[in-house]
Write a structure and sequence with these properties.
391 residues, alpha/beta, Enolase-like, domain 1, TIM Barrel, nine-stranded mixed beta sheet, three-stranded antiparallel beta sheet, 36% helix, globular
Length: 391
């Protein structure tokens, strides 16, 4: 549902801030201020690419400042063939998040109301423990899973295949790295028992044959889903479909599509059905309205929607509001335990409770960035996560 047109909000300023979280992570935010002084916030986190995010916003800013907010929307379209790639789509998605927040604040209503109203009062969440797990031994991964369960989560995800790259699958070090990844998952299962869902994220590290071999090794351990095993480029679509069939035969769902941008980019994965779960990310896919449209598309084709959300607190709240308003959402990802800044940086956020996230009645996303905390944690360069297959 598209919010009604608003011809009164005019954009006066757009700014970018990157906040240093730890040696691997920065959170990147966009704030849009109206000529009435109301501020909306969005998130564009893309580790290692912060200077490019800021530069792209500099290029985009002249098309935004001075424009009526609704008139700026055509400049914020996201699509798979954007010349500036994921950098452009991240900034455009973040501005769209900020405009939803801005409009909801101007109207004095929570964003979920502007997005069409609540279809549910809470959304189930699962814990991504990958970035919080600095001890990458099987015991360290098991400890992270146990901590997540102790916090009330009944589903836990990790990306266990450190150091595996598609170009080196035949090499002995890669085979040892795959063995280590399987050992991590097995240790997590042994630690949390059979009733906790485990999800395994592969970050596109495998070819079809290797993915199938890994799937065979993970199936006896008992995992809920197998995520992003191979490339999602067109040349790999048929392989992805075959892997989905193989996973289904083993009682495992296939999840994918966390970096896809724009509703049309999701169509090849749901019709024909090549995955069981699509994972739109509100900070890449085109913002909250695009996420809602993707959820509708997935629902129409019998595919689950579980938004990708492994980053900061603004993206989390934007995702929660969208999930509450979406036609059908299976679960939402939360990055667990990466940094206490998740609570220090924003005011108004309550942590997930007993495996569920909620949104109240505060206007917009219900969060405000704390400038003093941002000033105390200024941007520092971090490794480019996607280049290093760290996700």
């Amino acid at each position: 549902m598209k919010p009604p047109a608003d011809t009164t909000l005019r954009i006066a300023a757009v700014d970018f801030r990157a906040v240093h979280v730890n040696a691997r992570t920065n959170w990147s935010f966009v704030r849009v201020r109206s000529d009435a002084g109301i501020v909306g916030v969005g998130e564009a986190s893309l580790n290692g690419y912060e200077p490019l995010l800021a530069a792209y916003l500099d290029l985009l800013r002249p098309r935004l400042v001075g424009a009526v907010a609704d008139d700026a929307l055509p400049a914020l379209a996201t699509f798979a063939h954007a010349p500036a790639g994921l950098v452009a789509n991240a900034i455009r998605s973040a501005v769209r998040q900020a405009l939803v927040d801005l409009r909801a604040r101007a109207a004095g209503v929570p964003a979920w109301q502007l997005l069409g109203g609540k279809r549910r009062d809470r959304v189930a969440v699962y814990a991504n423990v990958n970035r919080a797990t600095r001890d990458r031994s099987p015991a360290g991964c098991a400890a992270s899973a146990v901590a997540a369960v102790a916090s009330g989560y009944r589903a836990v995800k990790i990306a266990p295949f450190d150091g595996v790259l598609p170009e080196a699958l035949a090499q002995a070090p890669t085979r040892r790295a795959i063995d280590a990844g399987v050992d991590r998952v097995r240790a997590m299962r042994d630690a949390v028992g059979p009733d906790v869902h485990l999800m395994v994220d592969c970050h596109w590290r495998f070819d079809e044959a290797t993915a199938l071999a890994v799937l065979d090794r993970l199936a006896p351990i008992g995992i809920r889903w197998f995520e992003c095993p191979v490339s999602e480029q067109p040349h790999a679509h048929a392989a992805l479909g075959r892997l989905r069939d193989a996973a289904q035969a083993r009682g495992i769902a296939l999840a994918a599509c966390e970096l896809q941008a724009g509703v049309d980019a999701f169509r090849p994965f749901v019709a024909p059905r090549r995955v069981d779960v699509v994972m739109p990310d509100v900070k890449y896919c085109g913002g909250p309205l695009a996420l809602l449209a993707i959820a509708r598309l997935a629902h129409a084709h019998g595919v689950a929607c579980s938004p990708h959300n492994p980053t900061g607190p603004v993206c989390t709240m934007a995702s929660v509001h969208a999930c509450l308003a979406a036609e059908d959402v299976a679960t939402l990802e939360l990055q667990l335990g990466e940094s206490p800044l998740a609570r220090e940086l924003v005011r108004g956020v309550e942590p997930a409770v007993a495996g569920y996230a909620y949104a109240g009645a505060a206007p917009g996303w219900g969060v405000d960035l704390d400038d003093a905390v941002m000033d105390a944690h200024p941007y520092q360069p971090v490794p480019p996560g996607l280049d290093e297959q760290l996700g």
